[in-house]
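Q: How would the structure tokens look for this protein?
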Amino acid sequence: MKSHPLSTASRAAAAVFALFAVSNCSLQPSTYDGESFGDRLARYGHEGFQNARKVTGRVSGWFRRDPSFWYADQMPGRPAIEIQLGEQMVYLYKGGQLAGGSPISSGREGYSTRPGSYRIIEKDIGHKSSIYGDYEDRYGRVVMQNINNQVDPRPPDTRFEGAKMYYFMRIYGGVGMHQGYLPGYPASHGCIRLPGNMAEKFFRATPVGTPVKIVP
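A: Here is the predicted structure in token form.
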């Protein structure tokens, strides 16, 4: 007898359970060291709201097999970016409120993305790498793939074609956020890769000067 997938109701119930489990909230009013349930909500309100929004965004993403979420278009306030290397996620805040999130692929071993506080210092919608890419012949056929032109000699009668890094947002040095392939783990030369649709959203929502915090 074939097993059936979870019903919509079952999934919704699981999502609610996950939300309360992660936020560590009780479903019943209670007191804690003389503090009422309402007072606790007020004390943890802002942090709890942000965590709940992350959870609900991620839970809905599980059903889509995509942890991306986006509320920014309807939200006011100045943007700020937080990149969580441990989670392999990037978050957008507007006016201090969580406004969007996307999976990423950051720098692999030996090319680790550097934690710290930065700002977007340059934007280039059609950016191509000046170091990494392919050697192609005169007809555009790839002769050598995934090369570093500072290390790999160029074969005769070929030219360098830089790797496409569309929606590039430079953070420091040669490192920035951009559209790229996400294998599910850190795999870049230090940049922060995003899916194409989310790279475009972040690009359009963040002007030059936007604060960027990279957290281990």
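The chain has two domains: 7-65, 67-127+165-215.

Helices lie at 8-23, 37-64, 196-205.

Upvote if useful.
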